[in-house]
Amino acid sequence: MSRYGATKPTEYLTVDPRFPFPHTSEPTRCQVTPQIFDYARGDRSTGGEEVEQRLEQARKACTGCPVAAACLRWALVNHPAARLGVWAATTPRERTQLRKRISDRLGPDWINVLADQDQARREQAATARHNPLTVTQARIVRLDREVNGPMPRPLTPGEQQRNRELLLAGVRSPYPAKKFAEAS
Length: 184
Prior knowledge:
Layout: H1 29-32, H2 43-47, H3 49-63, H4 68-77, H5 92-106, H6 110-130, H7 135-148, H8 157-171, H9 177-183
Helix pairs in contact: 4-5
């Protein structure tokens, strides 16, 4: 995924080592035709139709890319190295907006949060490889998923507090339990 004029964007800038540069075994469109991914702030206002066509070509090329998600993550985390150009079908302005949204959701230390999530995911995968389920356990898990569907996400502390309040409100209800039983 080299860009025009540089063999690797990591050669001249310091990047976060916790987020490796995405690679594939086969060349991607950004490696084969890097010129369509050249894009800088202000290109839309000065470039006209030719820039819009190039941007649309780059976005179409990214839709079928096998490493688009990893590319976007790398570009979001390593802002200085991905300051210019189209990365995972996003322009610099769109990536800035995405960074702000992620920061609002995960906090100002969002890069460390993502790195911790990745580390936990890798550790969980390693544990699963070293301690696989027995055949019986795997059958139980498969049957549970078939009957109950996917496991729901854990409740947040706010949701837990709301549920507690609803339960307490139900306990303190002015209606006696008999009326509820008779009504059903």
